Amino acid sequence: MKFADRRQAGRLLAPKLAEYTDESGALVLGLPRGGVVVADEVAKALRLPLDAWVVRKLGFPGEPELAMGAIASGDSTVMNRDMIRSFQVSETSLHEVVNVEKRELVRREIIYRGGLPLPAVTGKAVIVVDDGVATGYTFLAALKAIRERNPRELVAAAPVGSPQSIDRLGDVADRVFCLRTPDDFMGVGQWYDSFEPVSDKEVIEILSQSHIGRSTRLLGKV
Fold first, then answer.
1. For residue 7, what are the β-bridge partners?
2. pLDDT of residue 161
3. CA gyration radius for the chain?
4. CB–CB of 127/154 below 8 Å?
């Protein structure tokens, strides 16, 4: 069964996380862009603050949709060294891809966060949400960056993902919640009836209308 869209997926995912409803010191972090839409529904249902943690996939030169790793806010990098060696990607090409994606990551941090610091996660229960988990590299990069900031509990949540990638998240997260892990998983989009690209404008609107202005961002200023 497919999800109608990201918002329906978020509404279906939220009950799995019901124990965190109204929990003091908990927050939801969406991975832009699509994960922020899912996370918005989760945060609303759990009555928790919402913020974003920016991630960028590192695509192979000439094959940008094929991930060889990922970077995330907080100077986190995850690499698939086996694939990089297999495809004989040179260090020069690798650095070029990383530099391009770092510039895009910084651009998104600026427009999403408006110059505010990263979310304050130390000592908190942090629920990280994406719209799906394919290779898992972007999710892992975010989890590792957040883990280094000593959250009380680190939770990964997604509507759908490949079995192998979901298992991999458990190496870093304390708990992993996923509604569906189909054996015939080929890509996140195949499990949605509507999987339209999410714009920067939509992410900004979601964050500006969420608890972020009243709670999470204020915490980040302390």
1. none
2. 98
3. 16
4. no
How many residues in total does the chain contain?
222
Average pLDDT over residues 72-95: 93
Q: Does the pLDDT value for residue 201 go beyond 60?
A: yes
Residue 135 lies in a domain: yes
Calpha distance 106→186 (Å, rounded): 30
Q: Is the pLDDT of residue 104 over 50?
A: yes
CA 89 from centroid of its chain's CA atoms: 26
Largest CA distance in the chain: 49
pLDDT-based confidence at 45, cuts 50/70/90? very high
187 falls within a domain = yes
Q: Is the pLDDT of residue 220 over 50?
A: no
| Element of type H or E holding 109 | helix 91-113
Alpha-carbon distance 162 to 181, whole Å? 5
Note whether 13 and 127 are within 8 A (CB).
Answer: no
Contact assessment for residue 200 and residue 172, using Cβ atoms and an 8 Å cutoff? no
Residue 140's domain is classified under what CATH number?
3.40.50.2020
Q: Give the amino acid at 86.
A: S
Helices marked H in 47-158 — which ranges? Answer: 81-86, 91-113, 137-147
Phi, psi of 120, rounded to the nearest 5 degrees: -80, 110
Q: Kindly report the number of other CB atoms within 10 A of residue 35's CB atom.
A: 30
Sheet holding 76-79, edge to edge: 55-60, 63-72, 76-79
Domain tally, the chain: 1
In a domain, 188, yes or no: yes
